Amino acid sequence: MLKIGQFRQSSLRLYLTPIKRFRSKSKRNSKCAISVIGLSEVPHHGRCHSYMQLFHKLRLAHGPDPVESPRLTPHMVTAILRMNETAAQLSKGAVKEVQCNQLPANKPIEDRHVEGRLAGTDKYLFGVFDGHSGCACAQALKDRLFQYMAVSMADINLLNKLYQGKEIVASQLIEYLSTTAMDDISPDLASIHWQSLYQFVNDSLDMHGMESTVEEAVTSSFLRLDQDISTEANFHPGDEGLSEDLINIAFSGAVGCVAFIDGLDLYVANVGDSQAVVGSHSSDSDSWEATTLSNKHDSQNEREVQRLCLRHPNESSNILRAGRLFGELMPLRAFGDVRYKWQKRDLIHLTNLASQNSNFLTAYRDMKLPNNYRTPPYLDAEPEIIHYRLSPKDRFLILASDGLWDSDGMTVEKAVSLVGHHTEGQQVLGPYRPPENVLLGEISATLRKRKESIAKRAIDDNVATHLVRHALGLEHGCISAQLTLPEKLVRYYRDDITITVVHFNQEYIKNFGVLH
After folding, report:
1. pLDDT 10s digits, 167-217
2. Do 256 and 127 touch, CB atoms closer than 8 A?
3. 3-state helix/strand/coil string of 133-162
4. Residue 227: phi, psi to the nearest 5?
5. Could you give the 3-state DSSP secondary structure of residue 232?
6. Cβ–Cβ < 8 Å for 248, 376
7. How large is the average pLDDT for residues 144-152?
8. How far, in whole angstroms, is CA 266 from its chain's centroid?
9. Share of the chain above pLDDT 70, in %
10. Contact present, 443 and 434 (Cβ < 8 Å)
11. Up-side HSE of residue 362: CA atoms within 13 Å toward CB?
12. Is 139 exposed, middle or buried (CB count within 10 Å of its CB: 0-12, 13-18, 19+)?
């Protein structure tokens, strides 16, 4: 065990070691925490006041202790884990069911998720957005990104309807699934959003007729929304509250992972460090296989670092420090975060504007520019898109924020295995009706497999909840300790967790060639 400090006073021995903490995306949340591993009793007369102060501080930073933490009953744990779970059954297209859940670490939670389909079609959209420096940008993506994607893929008739000023048409571009709870937006903010979308419609009409792929259309929608978020922050309509909202959205940031399913074509567009993985079942080996459909855009991705350095030659030693952009931001692609995108003069103008007003933009008065801020933008929201063709062996898609993937022991293979076995356990709950002309040996083998699957049946019907439970630990005491952490400490041990599991319609996939 690594010891980074050792103190002796009579029989006092403190062994200090770093604990695994939440890898925050922004610098201001990246404090280091240490835990007390061992402590022998100290006689009252021999106690040193400074050591007791140190011990008190260490205890404040101590991780969740499954023995000493407040104990929740199994029923209470389950009730907390199921608080935000949702599910929707579907009857058309490649998607059979969707299950979602969230577990907050921030208050309010900075993650968002959204599920829907292009109106009047069986083309599905699923998104997970992970905000940082607040939830404002992630909320904007939830509210707006699917509309931009719908416009980028719209035909000429729909574009003309939108261009004629039919704002109500824009609100009907997406049919949201019951798993999505859309929040109300102020009329003033909604009006600005419509103006930006209307201009995108106008530009799309001008470009109509030029052949574009799905990848190009999705990329266009991502980049345009990010550009509009930045442009809107420079719009000051005279309403200080509205102006501050627009600026907060732009300076807040978010990463996002979006899946678009059209027939058997699955496209995953990723910006940042959320991830998507397809779970497939191999009948030959009776095992579950994981296919990752996204790459993390951080300093551990050599291609991403090379991409950044090529755009800013001779600045690599300055813009990447301690694995973060300017030593501050972990993801190397993101929406918002205009602090790393605007020109230096624009950032200085904002700080001056904040300084001249007593109650306006107070959070930006002391904003410091990164050292050697020379050639912005250093950040963009261009998605990396991976196309995947569904086959009968593919059973589900997992979309999740890094709160799941960074939890102890969680890998894409483990997540797929957990979902796969959970699915097997749920499938055996229905009555078994053997097909006609089946042999007794086959019936026996099927019943034996059903019996094995019953043993795998999980506590939670919702598989997203099942994943959240495993992300917190394997033992009830560990989960209880995680759920009773004080608000000031929870961010050091886990992030917000958001999970969407999309179950594919096997019959649709098998019969796709015949139907189409």
Report:
1. 899 999 999 999 999 999 999 999 999 999 999 999 999 988 777 899 999
2. yes
3. CCCHHHHHHHHHHHHHHHHHCCCHHHHHHH
4. -65, -40
5. helix
6. no
7. 98
8. 19
9. 82
10. yes
11. 3
12. buried
Structure tokens at 357: 């007003």
pLDDT in tens, 449-476: 656 655 556 789 999 999 999 999 878 9
Residue 15 has pLDDT above 60, yes or no: no
74 residue type, one letter: P
User: Global pTM?
Assistant: 0.84
> What pairing do the DSSP bridges indicate for beta strands 86-89 and 394-400?
unpaired
Tokens 């940008």 map to which residue? 137
Cis peptide bond prior to 108, omega within 30° of 0: yes
Tokens 């979902």 correspond to what residue? 419
Strands (E), 213-339: 253-262, 265-271, 275-282, 287-292, 320-321, 324-325, 335-336
* Region of 279 on the Ramachandran plot (φ > 0 left; ψ -120 to 50 alpha; else beta): beta
Q: Which two tokens stand for residue 280?
A: 């497939």
Instruction: Compute φ and ψ for 493, nearest 5 degrees.
Output: -120, -20
Do residues 271 and 335 lie in contact, with contact meaning Cβ atoms separated by under 8 Å?
Answer: yes
Q: Is the dihedral of CA 409, 410, 411, 413 positive or negative?
A: positive
DSSP state of 336: E
How do strand 287-292 and strand 265-271 relate by DSSP bridges? Answer: unpaired
Q: Which residues are paired to 111 by β-bridges?
A: 130
* Residue 464, SS3 per DSSP: helix
Q: Under DSSP, is residue 374 helix (H, G, I), strand (E, B) or coil?
A: coil
What one-letter code names the amino acid at 314?
A: N
What are the C-alpha distances in Å from 4 to residues 31, 284, 449? 16, 50, 51
Q: Are strands 324-325 and 320-321 parallel, antiparallel or unpaired?
A: antiparallel
DSSP assignment string, 190-224: HHHHHHHHHHHHHHHHHHTTS---HHHHHHHHHHH
